Amino acid sequence: MSEEREYEVVVVGGGPAGLTAALYTTRLGHDTAVVNRGGGRAAMMQDTHNVIGITEDTSGNELLQTAIEQIKGYGADYHRDFVTDAERLDDGRIRLEAGDITAVTDRVVLATGFSDGHPDPPVPRTGRGLHYCLHCDAYMFVDESVYVMGHGDSTAHVAMIMLNFTDDVDVLLDGDEPTWSDETDELVRAHPVDIVEEEVTGVENGDDGWLEALEFEDGTRREYRGGFAMYGSDYNTDLAEQLGVELNDDGTVAVDDHGATSADGVYAVGDMVPGHNQIPVAMGQGAKAGIDIHYDLRTYPMSAEEIEAQGGIDADDVPAVSDDIRASAEAHREDGGESASADD
């Protein structure tokens, strides 16, 4: 039987967006838990790109593990588990069921992301010739041979975008018929892009693990440094739908500028909401959600009516943070940790 715990904030998902939200709510004095099943897009990164202050030799797992240790150091609970069910209680709070824990909370931050559609094998190794983020990785392929694999409009458009970086771009249909529009077909064929119809039958990698070439059903061989797979996204919105959250037509979660959804007390951040799927963007979304939650949950300042209703405020009523947060903050100060925080 799982253990039931109460929190002010529970973040579901342990990527950059969710961990940043937890960082803010914890440091702003709210009892916070992160429930993370593991994996995810950021965890798959062999190198980190486009995150200022983080060098490229930092893997996604290293980045996330550092963040986890940070939030735990500030007093957040971290659970490696999978949330399967979410329901609204009669008092307005939300119950989340995972394998080893049941969490009852005032606010939920959903940061469950999406799963990229993958091409059928044979394919290059992810991160060593097979990539999913144009904005992250296009720089790596300046003046290199590049493929874009897929058959929809996004495939053709990414191929044309890659001409900004290299003059050697192929679209690989991998045996599929194009599903892009007639307008897109006319446009992509007007650009210097080769469209290869044959199925991929083999992959050649170098000693360093990077892609060197792909082999095709007609016996041809084409050399590539790497490329991008464009097979769409599957948004992980099961919990959002259980809580009655409104979705957009493209499957993303509809949110306001601070990540609040159509359901009271439910926020969504990161790759499951509209916008660029980038770590700095996700961090910004997590920060805005965390601050918005703080404004909503913080005890002070009270209104004059609230003060009168509770008979005034005395020294025993402050500070409003829990004993656990106070203990963590004191330990953090004693360790000298406060000097390492970027926002202090």
From TrEMBL:
What are the GO MF terms of this UniProt record?
A: oxidoreductase activity
Q: Which SUPFAM superfamilies match?
A: FAD/NAD(P)-binding domain
Gene3D superfamilies documented for this protein:
FAD/NAD(P)-binding domain (3.50.50.60)
What InterPro entries does this protein's entry cite?
Answer: FAD/NAD-bd_sf, FAD/NAD-binding_dom, Ferredoxin-NADP_redctase_2
Query: Locate the FAD/NAD(P)-binding domain: which residues?
Result: 7-286
The lineage's top-level taxon is Archaea
Q: Where is this region: Disordered?
A: 309-344
Name of the protein this chain belongs to: Thioredoxin reductase (NADPH)
